[in-house]
Specification:
alpha/beta, two-stranded antiparallel sheet, 6 helices, 16% strand
Protein backbone atom coordinates (compact mmCIF):
# COMPACT_ATOMS: atom_id res chain seq x y z
CA UNK A 1 0.00 0.00 0.00
CA UNK A 2 2.83 2.37 0.88
CA UNK A 3 4.54 1.67 -2.47
CA UNK A 4 1.35 2.33 -4.45
CA UNK A 5 0.86 5.66 -2.70
CA UNK A 6 4.51 6.61 -3.27
CA UNK A 7 4.23 5.59 -6.93
CA UNK A 8 1.09 7.70 -7.36
CA UNK A 9 2.73 10.74 -5.77
CA UNK A 10 5.83 10.28 -7.94
CA UNK A 11 3.68 9.96 -11.09
CA UNK A 12 1.84 13.16 -10.17
CA UNK A 13 5.12 15.01 -9.60
CA UNK A 14 6.50 13.84 -12.93
CA UNK A 15 3.32 14.89 -14.72
CA UNK A 16 3.44 18.37 -13.16
CA UNK A 17 7.10 18.69 -14.10
CA UNK A 18 6.14 18.26 -17.75
CA UNK A 19 3.88 21.34 -17.70
CA UNK A 20 5.49 24.50 -19.08
CA UNK A 21 6.42 26.95 -16.35
CA UNK A 22 4.82 30.00 -18.06
CA UNK A 23 1.46 28.23 -18.01
CA UNK A 24 1.67 27.86 -14.25
CA UNK A 25 2.91 31.43 -13.84
CA UNK A 26 0.04 32.84 -15.91
CA UNK A 27 -2.48 31.27 -13.59
CA UNK A 28 -0.68 32.52 -10.49
CA UNK A 29 -0.19 36.04 -11.90
CA UNK A 30 -3.60 37.68 -11.57
CA UNK A 31 -2.43 40.94 -13.17
CA UNK A 32 -4.93 42.55 -15.50
CA UNK A 33 -2.96 44.43 -18.15
CA UNK A 34 -6.04 46.14 -19.58
CA UNK A 35 -6.68 49.30 -17.52
CA UNK A 36 -10.22 50.74 -17.74
CA UNK A 37 -10.30 54.51 -17.30
CA UNK A 38 -13.02 56.99 -16.41
CA UNK A 39 -13.90 59.81 -18.82
CA UNK A 40 -12.09 62.28 -16.55
CA UNK A 41 -8.91 60.19 -16.35
CA UNK A 42 -8.85 59.53 -20.10
CA UNK A 43 -9.60 63.17 -20.96
CA UNK A 44 -6.85 64.45 -18.67
CA UNK A 45 -4.35 61.98 -20.14
CA UNK A 46 -5.28 62.91 -23.74
CA UNK A 47 -5.05 66.63 -22.93
CA UNK A 48 -1.57 66.04 -21.45
CA UNK A 49 -0.55 64.18 -24.62
CA UNK A 50 -1.85 67.03 -26.80
CA UNK A 51 0.17 69.47 -24.66
CA UNK A 52 3.19 67.12 -24.87
CA UNK A 53 3.38 67.06 -21.07
CA UNK A 54 2.31 63.43 -20.36
CA UNK A 55 5.23 61.72 -18.60
CA UNK A 56 4.10 58.11 -18.99
CA UNK A 57 4.55 55.84 -21.99
CA UNK A 58 0.98 55.39 -23.12
CA UNK A 59 -1.10 53.09 -25.31
CA UNK A 60 -4.78 54.07 -25.24
CA UNK A 61 -7.88 52.66 -26.96
CA UNK A 62 -11.20 54.51 -27.17
CA UNK A 63 -13.92 52.04 -28.11
CA UNK A 64 -17.64 51.36 -28.05
CA UNK A 65 -18.54 48.14 -26.24
CA UNK A 66 -22.13 48.37 -27.42
CA UNK A 67 -21.19 47.33 -30.97
CA UNK A 68 -21.97 43.81 -32.12
CA UNK A 69 -18.31 43.01 -32.73
CA UNK A 70 -16.60 44.41 -29.68
CA UNK A 71 -12.88 44.58 -30.62
CA UNK A 72 -11.81 45.20 -27.05
CA UNK A 73 -12.90 41.82 -25.73
CA UNK A 74 -11.88 39.87 -28.82
CA UNK A 75 -8.69 41.70 -29.65
CA UNK A 76 -7.20 44.38 -27.44
CA UNK A 77 -7.88 43.09 -23.92
CA UNK A 78 -6.78 39.54 -24.73
CA UNK A 79 -3.68 40.86 -26.52
CA UNK A 80 -2.78 43.06 -23.52
CA UNK A 81 -3.01 40.14 -21.11
CA UNK A 82 -1.33 37.62 -23.42
CA UNK A 83 1.63 39.89 -24.19
CA UNK A 84 1.68 41.50 -20.73
CA UNK A 85 1.40 45.00 -22.21
CA UNK A 86 -0.40 47.61 -20.16
CA UNK A 87 -3.05 49.23 -22.35
CA UNK A 88 -5.42 51.95 -21.17
CA UNK A 89 -8.99 51.92 -22.44
CA UNK A 90 -12.16 53.95 -22.29
CA UNK A 91 -15.61 52.68 -23.27
CA UNK A 92 -17.55 55.34 -25.21
CA UNK A 93 -20.87 53.76 -24.26
CA UNK A 94 -20.18 54.27 -20.54
CA UNK A 95 -20.91 57.99 -20.86
CA UNK A 96 -18.81 61.04 -21.57
CA UNK A 97 -17.40 61.62 -25.05
CA UNK A 98 -13.68 62.06 -25.63
CA UNK A 99 -14.04 63.47 -29.14
CA UNK A 100 -13.07 67.00 -28.03
CA UNK A 101 -9.96 65.69 -26.23
CA UNK A 102 -9.03 63.58 -29.27
CA UNK A 103 -9.59 66.34 -31.87
CA UNK A 104 -6.16 68.03 -31.38
CA UNK A 105 -4.48 64.67 -31.95
CA UNK A 106 -6.38 64.24 -35.24
CA UNK A 107 -5.69 67.69 -36.69
CA UNK A 108 -8.97 69.10 -35.35
CA UNK A 109 -11.16 66.37 -36.86
CA UNK A 110 -14.06 65.15 -34.77
CA UNK A 111 -15.33 62.64 -37.35
CA UNK A 112 -13.66 59.59 -35.85
CA UNK A 113 -14.53 55.94 -36.37
CA UNK A 114 -14.15 53.82 -33.25
CA UNK A 115 -12.05 52.14 -32.06
CA UNK A 116 -9.41 54.87 -31.84
CA UNK A 117 -5.84 54.09 -30.78
CA UNK A 118 -3.41 56.65 -29.38
CA UNK A 119 0.22 55.96 -28.51
CA UNK A 120 2.49 58.44 -26.75
CA UNK A 121 6.24 58.16 -26.36
CA UNK A 122 7.51 60.83 -23.91
CA UNK A 123 11.16 60.15 -24.81
CA UNK A 124 10.63 61.27 -28.40
CA UNK A 125 7.53 63.43 -27.70
CA UNK A 126 5.78 61.48 -30.47
CA UNK A 127 2.06 60.82 -30.60
CA UNK A 128 0.50 58.46 -33.12
CA UNK A 129 -3.30 58.54 -33.24
CA UNK A 130 -5.38 56.43 -35.64
CA UNK A 131 -9.05 55.70 -35.88
CA UNK A 132 -10.87 52.63 -37.15
CA UNK A 133 -8.09 50.47 -35.75
CA UNK A 134 -10.17 47.34 -36.20
CA UNK A 135 -9.81 47.82 -39.97
CA UNK A 136 -6.04 47.80 -39.55
CA UNK A 137 -6.11 44.17 -38.48
CA UNK A 138 -4.35 42.14 -41.15
CA UNK A 139 -4.14 38.45 -41.83
CA UNK A 140 -0.65 36.95 -42.01
CA UNK A 141 0.60 34.07 -44.14
CA UNK A 142 -0.56 31.58 -41.52
CA UNK A 143 -4.10 32.94 -41.64
CA UNK A 144 -3.86 34.24 -38.08
CA UNK A 145 -5.02 37.79 -37.40
CA UNK A 146 -2.43 40.33 -36.37
CA UNK A 147 -3.57 43.04 -33.98
CA UNK A 148 -3.14 46.36 -35.81
CA UNK A 149 -2.61 48.05 -32.45
CA UNK A 150 0.69 46.19 -32.08
CA UNK A 151 1.86 47.74 -35.36
CA UNK A 152 1.03 51.24 -34.05
CA UNK A 153 2.84 50.49 -30.78
CA UNK A 154 5.90 49.28 -32.68
CA UNK A 155 5.83 52.32 -34.97
CA UNK A 156 6.02 54.59 -31.90
CA UNK A 157 8.67 52.52 -30.09
CA UNK A 158 6.27 51.13 -27.49
CA UNK A 159 6.76 47.40 -28.01
CA UNK A 160 6.42 46.89 -24.23
CA UNK A 161 3.11 48.77 -23.92
CA UNK A 162 2.28 51.57 -21.50
CA UNK A 163 3.88 52.45 -18.22
CA UNK A 164 2.11 50.57 -15.45
CA UNK A 165 -0.65 52.63 -13.83
CA UNK A 166 1.23 52.97 -10.55
CA UNK A 167 4.66 53.69 -12.01
CA UNK A 168 6.46 56.76 -13.23
CA UNK A 169 8.83 56.63 -16.25
CA UNK A 170 11.83 56.31 -13.92
CA UNK A 171 10.60 52.99 -12.53
CA UNK A 172 12.43 49.83 -13.68
CA UNK A 173 9.39 48.15 -15.28
CA UNK A 174 8.69 51.13 -17.52
CA UNK A 175 9.30 50.38 -21.19
CA UNK A 176 12.76 51.33 -22.34
CA UNK A 177 13.08 54.28 -24.71
CA UNK A 178 13.44 53.35 -28.38
CA UNK A 179 16.92 52.64 -29.73
Amino acid sequence: MKRRFSAAVLALCLTLALLPAPALAAEADGTEYWVDMSAGEAGAMLNAVAAKSESRYMVFVYYDAATAQNPVETQFRSSANKNKHYIYGYNASSGGSLVDALAPLFGGSTALTLPVAVTWNPSTKTCIAKDNVRQMTIVGDTGAGINGLLDIMKENGLTNGSSAPDMSPSDPDTPAPPD
